Fold:
Amino acid sequence: MATSQGTWGYRERFGDAFARTYFRRFGPGVTSSIGLGTYLGESTPERDERYRESLTEALAAGINHVDTAINYRYQRSERAVGDALAAADVDREAVVVATKGGFVPFDGTRPDDPGAYVREEFVRPGLLDVDDLAHGSHAIAPAFLSELVDRSRSNLGVDTIDCYYVHNPETQLAVRDRDAVYDRLEAAFEELERRRRAGDVGGYGVATWDAFRVPRDHDAYLSLREVVARADAAAETAGAAESGLEAIQLPFSVTMADAFTVAAHRHPESGDDVSALEYAQATGLDVVASATLAQGELASSIPAAVDAELVGETAAQRAINFARSAPGVTTALVGTSSPAHVPENIAAGTFEPLGARAFDAVFE
Ligand SMILES: NC(=O)c1ccc[n+]([C@@H]2O[C@H](COP(=O)([O-])OP(=O)(O)OC[C@H]3O[C@@H](n4cnc5c(N)ncnc54)[C@H](OP(=O)(O)O)[C@@H]3O)[C@@H](O)[C@H]2O)c1
Structure:
């Protein structure tokens, strides 16, 4: 697993090559504030190889945070990450490995009959009830998640997953009410607390697309305050001194800044409604930003008025620096399967992040 010594040692390798605060505290050690994502792309051996190469290069050059999910590219992304970790000239203890579970994963390719695959692979062996499923493809039932944790550990070739996210739990709101979703999240957290005590996960998180950035009256809304309370309750049930909930993941970019602008979460002290970023800061949760480049779009063009406020030589660097400058964001993920993009993206970290005033100016 990522350790204090391993990640601080990794940071020292780079001396003062990066700007101040490029490395930030995360879990037991430090993480680069730029992470490599593995979501997009066809499920082909060629794309696997590109991800392997990109991650190998990134680990050598200053990125020690990799983000994946068991369902990405039908488990091929996790396996490519595992291959890159095994081949890299970097200790396992130096790297933050994050993955997610929630969507039913296919195995390498899309089966001819997805429904039959789900029944044979998960329902018949008793890992899932049909009632657990939303859209026939998403569940957060404890036994199912626990099985996915083990499959991910195997795909990644690691004993411990540093940060295990419950993946897009708002998907469950399609089939049950909000209180029932919170109950299910609490049961999932209890399982993750057990797996944390066993050393199979270091900490856990909640990865979302809509839940935390939408207004309170939105169908996909989940309250951060309730999620944190459910993690505390799960820790208590599991006999843990404090909860292992350490991070939330949400999209955050120049064109999707709702996590900073939409006040939908009640501040634990003031009682005012604040943004997801402010809430996370107030409660010590790390925020990992996804889709930093708006799935590639921002690498070619950023709205001019905003662009003028940002730092970096290229549009991709400026978009990355927007996300990693936001107050409360620990790491900005950039999906990178082209090895040629790696040096450009890492070099964004040689620029000082925007200060609070400059960041606010982007919104004026
Ligand atoms: N709900 C969730 O949990 C959730 C949702 C979305 C994303 N995520 C995580 O966040 C990560 C990042 O999001 P994302 O991959 O969706 O989108 P993204 O990071 O905004 O964009 C990725 C795209 O940008 C391209 N790109 C990267 N660097 C570039 C550069 N320097 N110049 C030009 N193009 C460049 C990539 O191309 P190449 O591949 O060719 O390099 C890829 O097509 C994901 O990989 C995933 O790990 C999580």
About this structure: Residues 4-361 form a domain with the TIM Barrel fold (CATH 3.20.20.100). The mean pLDDT is 97. Residues 37-40, 67, 100, 167-168, 207-209, 249, 290-296, 299, 316, 333-338, 341, 344-345 surround NAP (CB under 6 Å). The chain has 13 helices and twelve strands.
